[in-house]
Amino acid sequence: MTGIQKYKYQIVGISYAICVIFRLLWKFVRHPIQYVRLLAKKPPSTRPECLLDESFGTHQFIQLKDVKWHCVSKGNKDKPLMLFLHSFPDFWFVWRHQIKEFSQRYRTVAIDLKGFGDSDKPSEITAYLTSKIRKIANLVRALNYKSCILVAHDFGGTVAYHVATEFPELVDKLIILNSPHPAAFLESIEKRSSQRAKSWYMVLFQVPYLPEILIRVFDYEFLRCMCGGGRLGSAVTDEEIQAYRYMYSKHGFSKQLNMYKAALSYRKDTVSTEIDIPSLIIWGRDDSFLDTKLAEMNKTYLPKMKTKLLDDVGHWPHIDKADEVNTAIQDFLDEK
User: Catalytic one among 90, 118, 154, 287?
Assistant: First the structure.
């Protein structure tokens, strides 16, 4: 993104901030007691039981040159590696349904991306540039594998696209959930007003401090919306929401938001290389953040792509319709 474009995004971000602040003030004036109670309410102080469930696998840390990664591993080490990359506001736990499904046939490893969960959280925005995060390719080697099946969602997909571009020998098959190729996304932002409107949160996240304040004021309730595929009360239990509240009360949100700030440095000419790897795109049609059109736009950059569109599914299909997603993944992996 050019300097002028970045400046325009910052101006828009300030405009969003002003609107949100006035809206918050108005709600506070109308319901002061309710908001005081929300601010006083504390998240869980101990790790919820679902995060201690041994059926998800073994927790471990892998120290690479510049960062320590936390991951959860399950399955025999002689099985093929299936590596999972999450997005915001998630951590390894978002892949719970896939870990249990595939750990019999694969060595499943779900990591916390840099800045998330229990992985290291550098303060510098530059540490979250994709050129730095894609060094996750070294994790495959650190796990004593030569290649993997790479499964990723949203921003994790952005990382996966870069890994597959730079290190195609490390990726046997690429499985992406609701994540456009970076070049397709930039093209959509430039040409489609509908996608610009859906990307409002990326603009808001450029504003210092405000996103964290909003999250705290609304008592992390937005997590139920986001982690439930955009639907309150969907396939997410109260205990699972408490797991997110615990994790973010422990670590905060500021470092995670750095990846959105770093994303403004993307340039289409640096991410437009084709990825000649068998790929599956799984896409929930009811995504509140990404146009369904982007799923087909990926074809320009993924010539060996297959697409699975899911009706009545939001941005998190691996939670919303875990069984359908797992079946689609296994069918794809069974193909020769």
Answer: 154
